[in-house]
Amino acid sequence: EVQLVEAGGGMVQPGGSLRLSCAGSGFSVGNSYMSWVRQAPGKGLEWVAVIYSGGATYYSDSVKGRFTISRDSSKNTLDLQMNSLRTDDTALYYCARDISWGQGTLVTVSS
Amino acid sequence: DIQMTQSPSTLSASVGDRVTITCRASRNISSWLAWYQQKPGKAPKVLIYKASNLQSGVPSRFSGSGSGTEFTLTISSLQPDDFATYYCQQYNSYFGQGTKLEIK
Asked: In a mutagenesis test of the B interface, which of A58, A99, A100 is the best target, namely the one with the most B β-carbons within 10 Å?
């Protein structure tokens, strides 16, 4: 059974950094297409970034240049390094493998 | 980037109605499309995967069709539990804007 568990959320000031992690079980993160998705309070679902099994990465325009998606195949984990955080990055962040999602971790950017 | 356009943004319907939500991709995405249902305060729940496959445990009144650039989600007979927001998503990529299904 595919399971995904996110961690690393919290409160950070504007301009700060945060690193999210997602632990996968029941499958190989390194052999999968893995994504981060977020949902700001009261807003719709927003795709953030993807890393393909071959290693290519893609980002939404809203996070390009500030966020970096990566994986550690030895630990079977997916990460999202978030720099230069803004108040509009406040959201519940989910990691996903195709249609399987974790329960999310909350990121709040506020002064 | 492939953009996903979902319509309508709001849909008012009654219990028992048949409703259809449309999702259009800006380029051919074959059948790499999923439909999700989300209720307030809850995580999204997958209804349909690969455009037309019903996820295990999802009632058969839900169905998906389409391929390429045009896709539909149909609910054959609305039940009270179906009033929620629905999203389409190209696998590992963009979502549609969402359709809020409201009680008429």
From this structure: A99
Long-range contacts of A62-65 (CB under 8 A, 24+ apart): A63/A89
**From CA B24, how far away is CA B6, in angstroms rounded?**
6
pLDDT at B1: 80
Neighbours of A30 (CB within 10 A): 16
* Averaged pLDDT for residues B71-86: 97
The predicted pLDDT at position B104 comes to 87
Q: Which amino acid is at B63?
A: S
CB pairs under 8 A between A and B: 44
